Amino acid sequence: MVERLGVAVVGGGFMGGVHAEVLTADPRVDLRWVVDRDERVGTDLATRFGARVTTTLDEALADDTVRLVVVATPAATHEPIAAQVIAAGRNVLVEKPLVLSTGHARQLAAAARERGVVLAHGGNFVYAPKFVRAHELAADREALGTVHSVRVAFRTSGPDTDWFRSKATAGGGALTDLGWHAVELCRWMLGKPAIRAVTACTRQLSAAGDVEDQGVVLIEFADGAIGQCDVSWACPGGEQLTVEVIGTEGLVTADLWQGMGVEAYTNTKFGAVWEPNQGWLRPEWEWIRNSGYVHQDRQVVDAVLDGRPTTHTPDDAVAVVETLEAAYRSAADGRKVEMNA
């Protein structure tokens, strides 16, 4: 009998639940622990998936069968937790943002290489099947010619959890939360070229918290292409995530949530549809798979069990952190930030 991969999930909230659902559906995985400082929250998730619960990471790491740890906690806690996991010689998948500073990102990448463990970061949308297909089409230079522009728009009505709106726990607002995905998608669609300069502006619209609700980032790539990332927590009407790649001979566009093939209407409200859930709707289906979580987490399991390289590496995470840091500096100073392209 092949030994299954022991996993611990740190953080029993929404994202911890997403990873637990995806990983327990993989027959190669044994979810052994849920770690959460709030024992009630941890117990709820652990009970759903037949895992043990603990309030300390040390107890989970004392279990020698645990070889992969998933970190799904507030962003400000990612670096110390990931560093502890790597120091213990375990593989780790850290939800986005990997960390909040370029220095910490590079330190974690170096530590993972030294220990010979997998360091993966949560960037599920670059694994989403619809965007993977768009990426394949965008890579056809005969069809598109010289690609000169990429635009990613990611807008929601804002987070449901208060810690997202606190700089102390989240590190930033919409730019940290949604901007991670937007920058990663933008860079990936172009083939991951070096970045020459970043210009950004942000705005806080909500009276709650101390972080931005809206941000626009302009990325100048070393190959001459321009990237635009438009992110917002202040968009009513449901989540929007679109990608547009434009070349001299053609273009590719992809909308994650439109064209799902299901339509519905109600004068009241649908109980099993996220807001907006009234009027004419295009309800999502298999949203976890369509968002790329299944493909992402299975690739991490492949990397741990079989040594296969991941499509998106710690160096890619460093590039995203560095870009977001530059964006915040640009927004604060009102100037373009030059990068070491």
TrEMBL record:
UniProt KW keywords: Oxidoreductase
Annotated SUPFAM superfamilies: Glyceraldehyde-3-phosphate dehydrogenase-like, C-terminal domain, NAD(P)-binding Rossmann-fold domains
- What are the GO MF terms of this UniProt record? nucleotide binding; oxidoreductase activity
Look up keyword DNA repair and say if it applies: no
Q: Which residues form the Gfo/Idh/MocA-like oxidoreductase N-terminal domain?
A: 6-120
Q: Check the record and name the Pfam families matching this protein.
A: GFO_IDH_MocA (PF01408), GFO_IDH_MocA_C3 (PF22725)
Tagged with keyword Oxidoreductase: yes
Every copy of the GFO/IDH/MocA-like oxidoreductase domain together lies at 140-251
Q: What PANTHER family does the record tag this protein with?
A: BCDNA.GH03377
Report what the protein is called.
Answer: Predicted dehydrogenase
Organism for this UniProt entry = Micromonospora echinospora (Micromonospora purpurea)
